[in-house]
């Protein structure tokens, strides 16, 4: 069995979270942007791209204004504590909006002017502000026009996002903003695809995978690909078993439209996939009689090639502080059916295309593991956990010894029973983290995990 941990920067500040690509693209971009802006000091961010910049309180979009309200009601001023104002609790909330990035950032203009730290990330906040307004602008989002199947003689490259988009036939991504939008949309399917694919950048040679890890990947690739020289086409997969990807602790992953997940299938033309989103925060389909909110701002939002980013407008902003909220219900498609009879918990299945079936199960994985445990096969099945937070303290379980919160990996209400169950399947387990620090925290937590022999795992 192998436990592979890669560092990703999932959705923090909207940088690409692709494990292979983030280091190639994200870092370069950050470096360039900063050095350019540093030339201009405080008045830096005035080079806005036509009309996309608004202070949060003056945004034309209710969801952005609501986000600003939430920040103003929760965030303390970063300068107050060092300026002797810490005792004035109410005064220290951020009421002043930075004119450069538009975010509520300080209690007052005076403290904003005193703060040297804010300069370091103001330009990135400005980017997020403009990206959010761009997404809602109603323009035709060519970044979200996804290509169809790959011709079998055309190899796909995962060296960096640009090569991937080029070799997959995406519309050209001319601006950094387009690249951010597209990499954010594709981050989950491409993280999975770029790790499993035989052209993956994780190889024994560059030491990004261990011998044990490469054996697990080799087993999966005997099913994912065809023998060398054979055409990798849909017909070649007639007798192949289905590939099952179990995404545990799924949240936003489960609300991504199926046509975006279909991009994973198109990397493996001869495979049939069954994706399982399993976790207490899995998004379920809308009730049958619940009206589907129609977005008014984009004329193309009803087509299957558009994502549902605009649908967010209808809902209030929910602050994402410690435990992110369950995403909104997903659209109910023609063939969506309930699977509650099958799994005994709230769940659904969509046979989306001949190549792709999606099942969502809203429950802790340990509740449904017994139904799967006899069926696992390391050649066809793999687990993916996106930023599971193994090393974070549990919100629900306290240690009997000292009364302190257990780490989530040891907590019966979180990952305590799940990790040993996954390891017993002998299937590959892929875990990502927000940052290198996050990944290291998760790895260290394995040492205190019950029923997990760290000696059996390699990183
Ligand atoms: Zn202050
Ligand atoms: Zn700012």
UniProtKB/TrEMBL annotation:
<dbReference type="InterPro" id="IPR032717">
    <property type="entry name" value="Mss51_Znf"/>
</dbReference>
<dbReference type="InterPro" id="IPR046824">
    <property type="entry name" value="Mss51-like_C"/>
</dbReference>
<dbReference type="Pfam" id="PF20179">
    <property type="entry name" value="MSS51_C"/>
</dbReference>
<feature type="compositionally biased region" description="Low complexity">
    <location>
        <begin position="288"/>
        <end position="307"/>
    </location>
</feature>
<feature type="domain" description="Mitochondrial splicing suppressor 51-like C-terminal">
    <location>
        <begin position="189"/>
        <end position="446"/>
    </location>
</feature>
<feature type="region of interest" description="Disordered">
    <location>
        <begin position="288"/>
        <end position="314"/>
    </location>
</feature>
<feature type="domain" description="Mitochondrial splicing suppressor 51 zinc-finger">
    <location>
        <begin position="77"/>
        <end position="135"/>
    </location>
</feature>
<protein>
    <submittedName>
        <fullName>Uncharacterized protein</fullName>
    </submittedName>
</protein>
<dbReference type="Pfam" id="PF13824">
    <property type="entry name" value="zf-Mss51"/>
</dbReference>
């Amino acid at each position: 069995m192998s436990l592979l941990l890669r560092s990703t920067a999932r959705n923090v500040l909207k940088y690409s979270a692709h494990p292979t690509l983030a280091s190639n693209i994200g870092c370069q971009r950050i470096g360039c942007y900063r050095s350019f802006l540093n030339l201009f000091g405080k008045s830096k961010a005035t080079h806005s791209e036509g009309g996309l910049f608004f202070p949060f309180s003056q945004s034309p979009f209710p969801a952005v204004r609501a986000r600003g309200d939430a920040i103003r009601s929760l965030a303390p001023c970063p300068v107050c504590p060092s300026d002797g104002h810490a005792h004035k609790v109410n005064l220290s909330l951020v009421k002043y909006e930075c004119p450069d990035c538009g975010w509520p950032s300080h209690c007052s203009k005076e403290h904003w002017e005193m703060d040297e730290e804010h300069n370091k990330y103001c330009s990135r906040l400005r980017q997020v502000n403009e990206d959010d307004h761009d997404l809602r602008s109603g323009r035709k989002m060519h970044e979200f026009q996804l290509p169809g199947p790959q011709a079998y003689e055309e190899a796909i490259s995962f060296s960096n996002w640009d090569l991937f988009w080029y070799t997959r036939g995406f519309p050209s991504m001319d601006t950094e903003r387009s690249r951010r939008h597209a990499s954010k949309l594709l981050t989950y399917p491409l993280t999975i695809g770029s790790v499993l694919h035989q052209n993956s950048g994780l190889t024994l040679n560059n030491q990004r995978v261990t011998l044990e890890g490469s054996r697990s990947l080799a087993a999966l690739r005997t099913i994912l690909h065809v023998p060398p020289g054979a055409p990798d086409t849909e017909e070649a997969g007639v007798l192949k078993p289905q590939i099952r990807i179990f995404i545990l602790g799924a949240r936003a992953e489960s609300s991504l439209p199926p046509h975006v997940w279909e991009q994973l299938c198109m990397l493996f033309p001869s495979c049939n996939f069954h994706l399982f989103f399993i976790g207490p925060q899995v998004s379920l389909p809308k009730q049958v009689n619940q009206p589907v909110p129609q977005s008014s701002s984009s004329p193309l939002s009803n087509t299957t090639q558009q994502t549902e980013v605009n649908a967010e407008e209808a809902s209030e902003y929910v602050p994402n502080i410690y435990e992110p909220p369950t995403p909104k219900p997903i659209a109910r498609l023609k063939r969506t059916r309930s699977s509650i009879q099958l799994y005994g918990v709230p769940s659904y299945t969509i046979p989306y295309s001949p190549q792709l079936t999606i099942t969502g199960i809203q429950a802790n994985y340990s509740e449904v593991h017994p139904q799967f445990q006899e069926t696992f096969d390391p050649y066809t099945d793999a687990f993916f956990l996106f930023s599971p937070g193994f090393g974070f303290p549990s919100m629900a379980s306290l240690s009997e010894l000292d009364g302190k919160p257990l780490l989530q990996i040891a907590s019966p209400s979180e990952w305590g029973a799940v990790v040993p169950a996954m390891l017993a399947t002998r299937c590959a387990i892929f875990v990502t983290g927000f940052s290198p620090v996050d990944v290291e925290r998760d790895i260290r937590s394995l040492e205190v995990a019950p029923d997990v022999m760290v000696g059996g795992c390699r990183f």
